[in-house]
Description:
One of its GO terms (molecular function) is protein kinase regulator activity. Keywords: CBS domain, Fatty acid biosynthesis, Fatty acid metabolism, Lipid biosynthesis, Lipid metabolism, Repeat. AMPK is a heterotrimer of an alpha catalytic subunit (PRKAA1 or PRKAA2), a beta (PRKAB1 or PRKAB2) and a gamma non-catalytic subunits (PRKAG1, PRKAG2 or PRKAG3). Interacts with FNIP1 and FNIP2. Belongs to the 5'-AMP-activated protein kinase gamma subunit family. There is one protein chain. Among the domains are: 118 residues, no CATH class; 141 residues, CBS-domain (Roll), CATH 3.10.580. It has 19 helices and 13 strands. It is of the alpha/beta class. The chain has a 3-stranded mixed sheet. The protein has a 3-stranded mixed sheet with strand order 8-9-10.
Amino acid sequence: MDLPQEVSPREQAVAERMRSGSRIPVHGGRRPHHEVDRLTDPQQGSRSPSLSLEPLQDSDADVYAKFFLSHCCYDAIPTSSKLVVFDTTLQVKKAFFALVANGVRAAPLWDSKLQSFVGMLTITDFINILHRYYKSPLVMLWGKLQQFYQRKASNENQATHKPSKTKKLLSMSPTELLDLSMNTFLNALSSDRGYYDGNCLRVQIYELEEHKIETWRETYLQYSSNSLISITPDSSLFEAIYSLLKNKIHRLPVIDPESGNVLHILTHKRILKFLHIFGSMIPKPQFLQKRIEEVEIGTFLSIATIRETETVYDALAIFVERRVSALPVVNEQGKVVALYSRFDVINLAAQKSYNNLNMTMQEAIQGRWCCIEGVLKCYPHETLETIIDRIAEAEVHRLVLVDTEDVVRGIVSLSDLLQALVLTPAGVEALFS
């Protein structure tokens, strides 16, 4: 069968190897990782005995597992792609602006002192930073003001002259303070500068603009001491899928072990596109004709959604607490009207509006500055093949499963599909382990 016209020369070469049945050339003369009989657990750095791969059965259910076992990560790297690398001494604000300017969602972090890559800066970091800084400053200021006036209370003359605006703030709880806009809070404080140094209490969300990446990692990231999860070019795509799902990450750096250079950032989306390109050259499994309601691939219980009237800060809290990558936005009738993803949050950096997290979801969606994936839906009666084609062609990370009334019934993500199509037939469970 002919390949799509948009394939690269490298993909053409992969196709020729598939037609001829020749083996994959080994990078640098090393033995490909996918020839071993056990998978490597990226976190442990050693072979995991619980992941022993027995020879796959000759049934069409494991055709995709065999396909990804026979192709290495280097095969999936596009001929031309953009890669941005940040030094850990770069300011956080500049780093996120650079992500926006270059149209990328993540960047490897280079530590000049260690002379090695130490991690990734992603949109998840931006969400965690906003969630932490937008909340803690108000609570911190509330505590400092309480301490200030407790000291003042020892002097009755001074205690009787508490400014009315600040006194009102002191009567509020930290939770109530969070409902105030930052401007309202700071304006109340600035009117009473005679009673404290307003500058010293101006909050850390502004200091965020001066923080370096290394400061954020050292101070707030509990996992910052862990080594970077990566993969080599000659590791199988099967191993890459396992690593992505097992470690619950969306980006996997492909690093050349000889030079130490990052060659590419492998994603679920790129892996599925690779399958979509070459899918016509391998047998099509019969289970692709099953309806999604039959195979039950996806998440159908405790679906995380958000109402139009809720705020961006509410969305950030759900992202952090539920560790989901997107939220269906529903109206009063419970019908899905939009999808707010983690990538949408970077829009706050693009518009320099990360101090205004009290805007409603409706306002945030209307204020999108670029073309971002809308609500791509699927229905229980549609086949698995239809759903895979829709995700691959639209280049999105998930579909919202809805009923005939457009009420959310589930989410079908790339992780769900890769687990069901590739790992499960091979007897490997990564997504829920």
